[in-house]
Amino acid sequence: MAHAQHVADDVHVHAHGHEEHEHHDTFITKYIFSQDHKMIAKQFLILGMLWAIVGALFSVFFRLQLAYPGQSFPIMEQFLGSKWAPDGILNPNYYYALITMHGTILVFFVLTAGLSGTFANFLIPLQIGARDMASPFMNMLSFWFFALSSVVMLASLFVETGPASGGWVIYPPLSALPQAAPGSGLGMDLWLISIAFFIISVALGGLNYVSTVINMRTKGMTFFRMPLTIWALFFTAVVGLLSFPVLFAAAVLLIFDRTLGTSFFLSDIFIGGEALGYSGGSPILFQHLFWFLGHPEVYIIILPAFGLVSEVLSVNARKPVFGYRAMVYSIMAIVVLSFIVWAHHMFVSGLNPFVASIFVLFTLLIAVPSAVKVFNWITTLWRGNLRLTVAMCFAIGFVSLFISGGLTGIFLGNSAIDIQLHDTYYVVAHFHIVMGVAAFFGMFAGIYHWFPKMYGRFMNSTLGYIHFVITLVGSYMIFWPMHYLGMTGVPRRYYAFEIFPQFDQYADLNKLITIFAIITFMAQLMFVFNFFYSIFKGRKVTDENPWKATTLEWTTPIEPGHGNWPGNIPDVHRWSYDYGKDGRDFIPQTEPLKAGEKDGGEH
Amino acid sequence: MLSLLIVAVVVLMGIVIFQVARTNELMSVLKGEHEGDVSPITTKIIAYFFLAFLVIGMAGVYFGYAFYKPKFLPAASSEHGVQLDYMFNMTAVFTGIVFFITHILLFWFAFKYKSGKGNTGYYFPHSNKLEIIWTTVPAIVLTVLVIFGLKAWLKTTGPAPEEAMEVEAVAEQFKWNIRYSGADGKLGKRKFDLISAENPLGIDWSDPNSHDDFFSDLIHLPVNKPVLFRLGAKDVLHAFYLPHFRVKMDCVPGIPTQFWFTPTQTTAEKQLETNDAEFTYILACAELCGQAHWTMRKDLVVETDEEFQAWFTKQPSTYSARKAALENKAAIEAQQFLDTLDNKEQKEVQPISAR
């Protein structure tokens, strides 16, 4: 503790000295190459939002093809060009390119960078009481590597053979052989380079988040006084640091196979009229490496949402989050287990069935801490005094989605049932609800809740409620029916179903899904409008602590400068969930414990 | 014109919504409401929305299921498939109970405990008893599911019975090659570097087991006899997917995979059961393999043993066909020289004698 205090003082003095120079900030150092964690958070958020629009727009295009196969949509030709969508009909190769890009963009750029990049940057220093990240410079590099990776991925959309089209999982040999699909040419090279930059960004950011949380907590901020947001973001960074490098290795080996003629993932291939020289490699090895990242990746996406939702629920229920310690331990359990469940994506890949059975055990085990979290969230609402802000609505919606999507995971995690459901729409429904939409709900809860801290203004709440209602209803209407498709055995990644009558009986349902997808997409555009409009024209924040929250970020000025607190960093004396204690609405973390009072986090 | 109209309507709606939203905000400021609070009327609207969402959602889940059930896959037509369906249903019961209870609590609480002025929340930071209950109960339920699941899984993926008939399915962009092991019940070896136009699977003819193997366009299977599918791929990953039999397994270049099962209903029986004279068992590809992934269909027919044997014994072996072709090479070459037919048809040489 003494050490942490020392560091905090040190930074404090340094930052204070630094602050005198802040007034000379130029446009470039303030808005572009900024080293202020708050500005970097906004950069991550806005770039993530731009990517989200692109990724979602792609999904609207391929949903049009699924709902109205073969029908001409001139708008598609206008957007995608006559090569991708000749006469307004999406070409199958580009259908696959669009689903690949949709997955890649949403998983990596939006829900990894846009979510944990934004909130880890914004909340960690503010909520633990630090002036900035441990290394603001590395933090800046983290964003700019993400930007670089974005540019490369964007460029891949414009190459002649099109972007990568082998699915976001880029399984070789399809992704390794340019003869197998046009997207496996230059587009695939750019995909791999882009992801390599992205992993550097994650590593730079993650190192910062971890070292900041460990070393830079203010005096009195013990681990068990930290808000759950910090716990969640901390473990997200740990998971990212341990798993992303494995994807880096996989990407490098795949680049070798593609360019140097090595055979890590390739063997015994006859394609395009000739037998290729690859020998002894294993496509299944790639799947192991990919999912060793890929599975922890879904927790990298959902853990920050866990944290944001726990915080938003507690603040707006005016009640402590129920079972704080259990919430922390369940995050830890999920983190540990997340590293030993990856092969549940590979039950029918040719994996040894006995090995698969071990992964079944761990996979279903992970449902226990997840269930604990759900029950604790619900109990947090019980006998609360719920202030139904827009953020609160999204947090409640998150819990609903997490239940719905989590439960279907119990089917898929059981290898016997997965034989039938694997690679059907059941899987699409499952993961979109549990880690796609649910993570978005966590992100929206976070944005609506902390927007006043970010910009000193509120987002318009009427637009916010409309956004919430359409998004909740729309998401269920898009993804719930996909369970029915899955139970009919309809495989995912099919361009059209006309060849298989069994799969082709859902024309109406596919239209319904697409219509709701378009409506939900429009609601997101409204959110984006609200976001940018409110930055400039939103209702001004006049109360330093508008939500009456206990945590440290609300002790800063309404628009904190670089360094966050103008004077000393406040000391912390209690946990962050003293809502409704002793009949008081809330007790800030900075208020000392009374004689004989027990700290809530200590049980 | 229509699209212009749609755009106009959307833009107009956007403007109206925006004006209402802005007015609401201004009203709130004028009324002097605290900026962090939610007005009573908004609270009420949202709380009733949650309630309506709960009721309509639950009804929708039930009626949606009832409505679409007739379209779901019919009951499994394989021994292990019945077991897997049972596992699915058992899991659906357990998770269904949790789904309904947690959702009712979640939205009911959101409705019931909406803010009233001057109240604080009930300070209830933890309860060891509750937390122990809801850690152990899911753990026990999941243990049950794991045990049943693994029993079904290990039986399904365990070794095939000795008497199982071997059939090979080799996938390539974008079709299936089906090879039967012939009378000896053994498939001849194949090597990818022997693949050529006339030997599409690269069968090694020096392996005597290959001599009675034959190809078939339609997959024929006898009912109630175990069949072992040996799976392979020539170029990229594919997946061998028989939805009606609950069979799925990847086909991997360079790595042999397999799946065995026992069909329990003939195609004719299934047509009667589903009341659909067009009913056909199908094979589909379930692993993205390129631009025509979605076209890789092959049909299966399950027959009585007699029907199957009648078909099976009539099939000429590919090897004998090839041998006959070689023996007649000179004659064929002469014929080729003379004939004016196009080359493509020439290659399909009919065997002189059945094996």
Describe this structure in words.
The complex is a heterodimer of chains A (603) and B (355). By secondary structure, chain A is mainly alpha-helical. Chain A contains 17 helices and 2 strands. The radius of gyration of chain A is 24 Å and the shape is globular. Chain A starts with a helix and ends in a 66-residue tail after the last helix. Chain B has 355 residues and is an alpha+beta fold. Helices cover 46% and strands 15% of the residues of chain B. In chain B, 34% of the residues are buried. Classes of the chains: A mainly alpha (603), B alpha+beta (355). The interface between A and B is large, with 134 and 121 residues.
Beta-strand percentage of chain B? Answer: 15-25%
**Sheet having the most strands of chain B:** 5 strands, mixed
Count of DSSP E strands of chain B?
10
Count the helices of chain A. How many? 17
Largest interface: A-B, 134 and 121 residues
Helix residue percentage of chain B: 40-55%
What structural class do you assign from the helix and strand content of chain B?
A: alpha+beta
Q: Oligomeric status of the shown chains?
A: heterodimer
Trace the largest sheet of chain B across and list its strands.
Answer: 3-2-1-5-8
In round numbers, the mean pLDDT of chain B is 90
* H/E series of chain A: HHHHHHHHEEHHHHHHHHH
Output the number of helix runs of chain B.
9
Strand order of the largest sheet of chain A: 1-2
- The radius of gyration of chain A is 24 Å
